[in-house]
Amino acid sequence: MLKYYFKTALRVFTRNKAFALINVLGLSVGISAALVIFLIVHYEFSFDRFEKDADRIYRIVLDARFNDADGHSAAVPAPLSGAVEREVTGIDATVPVMQFQGDATTQVTVETPAGKPRIYKKQSDVVFTNSGYFKLLPFQWIAGSPATAMKDPFTVVLTESRSRRYFPGMAARDVVGRRLTCNDITLTVSGIVKDLHEHTAFTAEAFISYSTIAQTSLKDQFMMDVWNDWMIYSQLYVKIAEGSTPGNVETQLKTLLSKYNKDVNKDRYHTMSFRLQPLNDIHFNPWYPTLGSRIVHKPTLYGLLAIAAFLLLLGSINFINLTTAYASQRAREIGIRKTMGSSKANLIVQFLGETVLITTLAALVSVALTPLLLRMFRDFIPPGLHFDLLHQSSLIIFLLLLIVAVSFLSGLYPAFVLSGYRPARVLKNQAFADKAQTRNAWVRKTLTVSQFVIAQFFVMATLMVGKQIRFSLNTDMGFNKEAVINFNIPRDTVAGREKLLLNEIASIPGVALASTGFFAPADKGVAFVNIAYHTGKEEIKPNAQIRWGDSNYLKLYQIKIIAGRNVLPEEGVKEFLVNESFAHAIGFTKAGDAVGRELQWNGKNVPIVGIMKDFHDQSTHARISPMVFEHNNGSTFHVKLAPDNAGGAQWTAVIAGIRKQYKQLYPDEEFNYGFLDDTIAAFYEREQQTARLLGWATALAILISCLGLLGLVIYTTGLRSKEIGIRKVLGATVSQIVTVLSKDFLRLVLIAFVLAAPVAWWAIHRWLEDYSYRTSLSWWVFALSGLGMMLIALVTMGLQTVRAATANPVKSLRTE
């Protein structure tokens, strides 16, 4: 029976090659996109799912509120781990994880028998922790004892790959007992563990015993006794005991905080608390980022799933439309089968079988297309993701479920339609004499409209996202960002070297201006300052940021002073500039009235001598922050390049000259620079990825919709071939016939536009609400989308309708 169904299906496909091809292409595009999106979403949601008792592992994080501004930190005060271990009940393991300040500066030195040490610079994933780390994660020990390896100070456990890097050619058991120096700390290797080949936030590869900190100067650097401050390199994980609850532990943490930091939580404007963050939330929560971590935006993943569903739906709609449209051509076959004894159930199974065969062919095409789509979607492909169908059982299961689901969705309705014909009426050519044909036509029209609603929604969303990105990139930031490069120098212990480098750079031809200071006006980081203004009745503490620079800083960035004057180039902080937002935040309606007022900072009164015009210090998502500026030198260099008329060659030469001067003073350091406009463009990396994603989704949606439209046009022109012939005999022109054939389809596209426009307007309006500074919802975006889709539909229909209109009428009429 199955063999018979298979042969029948192949015969049907061979007889209708064009429609089989359209169905396969439409479904294969949708399935390919679904496969790629499944790979991405499955990869991201697989993070930290492998740990034993993962539901009992938490990271302690910090929530704070300062002057009506909420803050969140994955870092906690360093002494918290010891206090938790001593005083908090209901916890099975307390695991601190700390890093050297500036992980990229970690340098490992390994002594060699030849006497010349091997130096490994910028070693990442080096942490200080305790033996509990190896209880949270399923490490396999190759050498050393998990019970004693982290017990003593000045010991280090290495992963197998890190051991091979530092001690090439040595067996793991021989590495144990060898020494290496990490920065200025000499350590003995006490164990080797296998690398974790899992998707996890725990990426460390070198584990220094936590007790080492107390025996070195790191005790002060890591602020091991300070409760009212913390650094980003300090994290704390706990595994709560069975029967314990996060709420119980958080209550005890609140008591700890009150005990050791008595100044906290004095009023509702200045609060602090610890809470437990579940392990499976770390990969997705943007409130608690860590250095080097990759936080994934969950709504983006859900958006990807929605796109996959829409593309699969479009492919299924194509199948339903074309299958029901061609029902009339199979009516006689169905009538004969029923006369010969086939039941409705037999026919439904046969037609669903044909659908499964087409879907399977589409799936095979999709598997071949997936590597190509992965390259197209490379901006969205996380590191570590790969496609290997033969070794990814979850992907095989998903593909099989997808074939079943798409076959059921696509084939069920056509199967019921086709199997429902009455044999007596079919054989008398009366199968479509009742309202069934009209009803089926309305179903096809509804499905076609649905396709173009989805396609036009994608077009409108793509245009508006692109418009907002252009607005953000081209908006006036309030300072000059063009032709400015920034770079940092290392911590310098040689007096005057920074000034010497600045003078050498300023003398290079092609350098318009050079300055040293802190962050650029808008930078990747934020720097808040604890500063207050007394009105006489109350103390106001704006949530303010700080910038500083030398005498050229404001001139280089062309930041305008709208009242008062610039700060004087004096040693020490004796004067402040503030921006308009700061002046408004401390109560001055007219910003210039703040000139002459005094601010309290670090226990001294500092006068405001000038008002800067507001400038954007972050992306257009955020409001402009209150800002103060002071005169000071710094380790960040800001260099304004002269205009380049040589297509970039002049700037290349200038930057090479800067690198040369840098290397003369810092020969062992790398020279890393960046253009400020690139830094600002990176603010909108997520939006640019969204725009590219929508662009691909739009292209695929239009492709699938147009394939379906083309199939219906081919069917319609074939069905109306005699009508076309009669019209031509009666004198109709080609343009008139094309108009008659096209107007019904264009009407469907127009209806789709009317339905898509309000939905797209609402969705885009909600998306734009995330921006404090945003572009307008322009009417032309929607009009352009509608006209564009009409034009694409016309082009899709054009070749086939013109071909039908120019055909010889004798061929279509000679059978009459």
From TrEMBL:
Chief subcellular location: membrane
Domain MacB-like periplasmic core: from-to ranges: 21-255, 447-621
Cellular localization per UniProt: Cell membrane
ABC3 transporter permease C-terminal domain segment(s): 306-419, 699-809
A Pfam family this chain is assigned to: MacB_PCD
Keywords: Cell membrane, Membrane, Transmembrane, Transmembrane helix
Membrane-spanning parts: 20-43, 301-326, 347-374, 394-421, 442-465, 693-718, 745-765, 777-799
Membrane-related topology note: Multi-pass membrane protein
InterPro entries in the record: ABC3_permease_C (IPR003838), MacB_PCD (IPR025857), Macrolide_Exporter_MacB (IPR050250)
Domain of life assignment: Bacteria
PANTHER family tied to this protein: ABC-TYPE MACROLIDE FAMILY EXPORT SYSTEM PERMEASE COMPONENT 2 (PTHR30572:SF18), MEMBRANE COMPONENT OF TRANSPORTER-RELATED (PTHR30572)
Protein name: ABC transporter permease
